[in-house]
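Continuing the batch. This is chain 6 of the set; chains 1 through 5 are on the previous pages. Same settings as before, nothing changed between runs. Recording input and output for traceability.
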Amino acid sequence: MSKSALIERSRRSERLPSAPTRRRSGRRTGAFWVPWAFLAPALVLFLLFKFIPMGEAVMTSFQNVRPFLGNQWVGLQNYNALLSSDDFQGAVWHTLLLGVGQTVGSLLLGFTLALLLEGQAKRLWFVRSAAFLPVVAPMAVIAEVWRIIYHPTGDGIANQILSWIALEPSQWINSPDSSLVSVMLVGIWRGAPYDMIIIVAGLVSVDRSLYEASALDGAGPLRRILYVTLPALRPVIAILLTLAAIRGMRVFTEVFLLTNGGPNGSSEVVMTLIYKLGFERNQLGIAAAGSVLLFAATVALTLLIQLARRRKE
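Output for chain 6:
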């Protein structure tokens, strides 16, 4: 390259502004605020309908709500009354049992369905769509369908299935001994297809050569699943566990529609108890305290799952 060409190139480089200069000029011309302008409507809605109500709920949890008389500051009395309540302790226990049962059952069933349907997109697309229907169907419709299935007489669908294996008819959601398990089965049936779709997406990234190498080494199907498939699906399983933890702590709709916490509080969970405290017993301060505790527990559980995942990585 000639000397004149080098001189011309150096002059051009001197004319071009540097990267920080371009960023500063972009901010001065208003380009920095363009993304925030698009986000502003959503942020305003979140502020009005989410963050401000959350702040009001935290303030209400320290007050004795008296309509038309003015709220009275009571400090931690609402939290003490809630934590010492037998109803709340039972609801926490039921929530934990229901959350763990639905999480484990949904993952196992979803993983099994994913292994059966993985790689069969062209031939089994209808089966995949049909299996995913419980996720998109309204919970009110699902509850009514399962009410028919759980009909307590011998003519009920579930009791007819029990009769095939020589078991006595069950009362299902009408019995304190089986109401929580009955709701758990509905949650597993509804959550498994969602887990299946995410696991199927994760199976696509598994290296097929690992299956071939393990098969040549004499590994059977079960060992290939344990030592090849599951380690490759760790990020997917971490996501599903996080979502299941949030869903399990906030379970409400299926319990409210199927049993409403009954019979005799045998299927009462934290969300249904909070609903009853606020809208049936008019104890809004205690209900707000329950909501704050539930939110804190959900955040803590989510962070614990994320920390455990990072330590394993």
